[in-house]
Amino acid sequence: MTTDSRLPNFRALSPEQRVDFLVQTGALSAAAGELLAVPGALALPVADGMIENVIGTFELPFAVAGNFRVNGRDVLVPMVVEEPSVVAAASFMARLARDSGGFQTSSTGPLMRAQVQVVGLRDPYGARLSLLNRREEIIALANQRDKVLIGLGGGCRDIEIHVLPDAPRGALLIVHLIVDVRDAMGANTVNTMAEAVSPLVEKITGGSVRLRILSNLADLRLARARVQLSPQILTTPDRPGEQVIEGILDAYAFAAIDPYRAATHNKGIMNGIDPVVVATGNDWRAVEAGAHAYACRSGRYTSLTHWEKDIDGNLVGTIEMPMPLGLVGGATRTHPLAKVALDLLKVGSAQELGEIAVAVGLAQNLGALRALATEGIQRGHMALHARNIALGAGATGDEIDRVARQMASEGDVRADRALALLTEIRRAP
C-alpha cells in the first residue's frame, strides 16, 4: 500500500485514533499498533540488558510528522522529542515544500574512520611512508576481523596517514582506517579493526600505539537535502512571499557569519534531526558531535544550511552534513519502538535514513527562519507550549485544551495565568 504522508485531520484525533488510522492505512502493522498502545513498551528486562544499573525506563512523546515527500516518495517521519512546536513546524514546512516537489536528497557511501594514535616516533614522516608501503597488508588484516561485513560488501577500503608535528607532547602519527560499514552505524566495527591492526602498526613504525577508536567527525559519510519554494508558497496573510524570502535570507546571513547566532541556528536544525535519530534507536550524541565539528571545518563555526535565491526569485535551501546512522545493531534492534519507527519509515538502507533525517533538519530550519522573519519565534512556539503549561498547572482532560486555547488567544502563556484560568473553570457551575 502506498504511503500518504499528508495525514488529514491527524491533529484532531486522539492518540488511540491516530494509531488506528496508521494501522488501517497500512503505515503500521497491527502488532506495531498494539505495541504503541501499551505504556512502557520497553520492558524492564530488555532495558536492563541495554545499559548498566537500570532502575526503570523514561518515556518521551513519540510522534509522527506528516506531509514529507522525499525524492518523490511520501514518508511518515517518527520523532521522539519533548519540545513543543518541533513536530508541528516540521510538518507545516513539509506541507509548503510538498507543493514544490518536496525534498531532493543524496548521500555518500557509509564510510567511517577509525584512528590509531602512534607516539614516540623520531621520524614520523618516514614512518608514514613505511605504513603506506604496507597499505594492502594493513587493510587485509583489518578485514580479517569482520567476515560478516565483508560478506555484505563492506570492509576496510583504504588508509590515511596523518602527521601532527606540533602536538603538545611531541609529534603524533595518526593512522586512519577508512571503513565501509554498510547499514551499521559502525562504531564497534571500526574500533575492533583499529585494535586489530595496532600491533602491526607498532612493528612497522617502531612507535607505541595509544588510542584506537573511531572518529565521530564522519566527514566521509555525508547526507544532503535540497528544497525550493516560490514566493507564492511563502506568502502569508500579512506579508508577500518576496518579503518573507528576504527576511529568511537576512536571518541566514546572520547565522553564516556569527557563531553566537550559528549555535542557535544549528540547534534548530538538530531539533528536527535528533528526534528522528532517537526514534530509530541511533546515537544522537554521535550525530550532534559530528554535526558541530563539521560546522567548524572552515576554521570558524557557521551554519550547517545554506539559503539563497535563484534566478526566478525562488528560495533555495540546502544542507550537507555527517549522518552516521544505522539500521542494524544497538538499540535499533533491541528497543521495540525503534523497530516500529523503522517500519514506519520504510527505508531500505542507512543512507536513505540519513537523507530523510537531514531533510527533516532542513524543514525545521526553514520553520525557524520563517518564524523569525515574520511573526517572531515566540508566538507560534508559545501557543503550542500552552498545553504543557496547562498540564503543569494541574489541568486534566478537556481542561487542558480549554486553558491552552484561552492563553493562546490572549497571547499570555504563563503558569500563573494557567492556574487562574483553571480555577475559573472549576468554579464555574
Outline the structure in words:
By secondary structure, the protein is an alpha+beta fold. 50% of the residues lie in helices and 18% in strands. The chain contains 18 helices and 10 strands. The protein has helices at 15-24, 30-36, 44-50, 86-98, 124-133, 135-143, 147-151, 187-205, 231-234, 241-257, 259-279, 284-294, 331-334, 336-345, 350-373, 377-392, 398-410, 415-427, and strands at residues 62-70, 73-80, 104-107, 111-119, 155-164, 172-180, 208-214, 222-229, 305-309, 315-322. The strands form 3 sheets. It has a 4-stranded antiparallel beta sheet with strand order 3-8-10-9. A hairpin with a 5-residue loop joins β9 and β10 (315-322). The radius of gyration is 25 Å and the shape is globular. The chain starts with 14 loop residues before the first helix and ends with a helix.
Topology (elements, then pairings):
Layout: H1 15-24, H2 30-36, H3 44-50, E1 62-70, E2 73-80, H4 86-98, E3 104-107, E4 111-119, H5 124-133, H6 135-143, H7 147-151, E5 155-164, E6 172-180, H8 187-205, E7 208-214, E8 222-229, H9 231-234, H10 241-257, H11 259-279, H12 284-294, E9 305-309, E10 315-322, H13 331-334, H14 336-345, H15 350-373, H16 377-392, H17 398-410, H18 415-427
